[in-house]
Design goal:
Low-confidence stretches: none
Shape: rod-shaped
Structural class: mainly alpha
Helix content: over 70%
Number of strands: 0
Number of helices: 1
Mean pLDDT: 78
Largest sheet: none
């Protein structure tokens, strides 16, 4: 009974890790798109500074 519970627990942990990694992958893609859009939108908007829309 204990080995069966350990296998089920391992499967649950691996499934959760896989879901978390997939969610983090999508978040990284969205952040990269927003960051790249910042280079396109900011120069068109003008303003005092050129090019970069973030502070650092």
């Amino acid at each position: 009974m204990v080995p069966l519970l350990l296998v089920l627990l391992l499967a649950l942990i691996l499934f959760g890790a896989g879901f978390a990694l997939k969610a983090l992958w999508w978040i990284a893609v969205i952040v990269a798109v927003v960051w790249l859009l910042g280079f396109v939108v900011r120069p068109a908007a003008g303003g005092g500074r050129r090019g970069r829309w973030y502070r650092w």
